[in-house]
Every structure is written in structure tokens, then in C-alpha cells.
């Protein structure tokens, strides 16, 4: 199990982080000889890119 699934289920970070969606059989990935796939939920919004963090964002990150 990836650490992000554990963090999602066992810490306050769970509400603030993206974790892979599980398959119908409960796996977090699908793979064969040619590819490996993980699917994450879509997060609507803008990419930060090189934009500086606001003071409020810094405060929120510090609380994590």
C-alpha cells in the first residue's frame, strides 16, 4: 500500500491530499508488461507554476 493511502486514511492530511483511486478489486495500480497505470481524482483549479505562495497559503502549509 502506498504511503499516500495510509496518510489519507490515518492522518489529518487525508482531507488535503490526492491519493490514487482504487480498482474494483482494491488495488491502487494496474500493470502489465507494457504499462503501469494509477488514476488520481481530478482537482479543478489553476497550476501554481512559478507563482509565489501567499501568506495565507504559507500558514496553511505550516499547519500540516
Describe the protein's architecture and organization.
It comes from Candidatus Ornithocaccomicrobium faecavium. This is Aminoglycoside phosphotransferase family protein. The protein is mainly alpha-helical and 64 residues long. The protein is 27% helix and 6% strand. A two-stranded antiparallel sheet has the order 1-2.
How many structurally independent domains?
Answer: 1
- β content, as a range? 5-15%
Q: How many runs of DSSP E, i.e. beta strands?
A: 2
| Mean residue pLDDT | 87
What's the short version?
This protein is mainly α.
Question: What would the keywords be for this entry?
Answer:
64 residues, mainly alpha, two-stranded antiparallel sheet, 2 strands
What is the fold's blueprint, element by element?
Layout: H1 3-10, E1 30-31, E2 36-37, H2 55-63
Antiparallel strand pairs: 1-2
Amino acid at each position: 500500500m502506498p504511503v499516500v493511502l495510509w496518510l489519507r486514511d490515518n492522518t489529518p492530511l487525508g482531507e488535503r491530499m490526492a491519493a490514487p483511486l482504487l480498482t474494483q478489486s482494491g488495488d491502487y495500480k494496474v500493470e502489465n508488461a507494457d504499462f503501469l497505470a494509477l488514476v488520481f481524482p481530478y482537482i479543478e483549479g489553476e497550476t501554481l507554476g512559478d507563482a509565489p505562495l501567499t501568506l495565507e497559503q504559507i500558514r496553511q502549509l505550516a499547519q500540516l
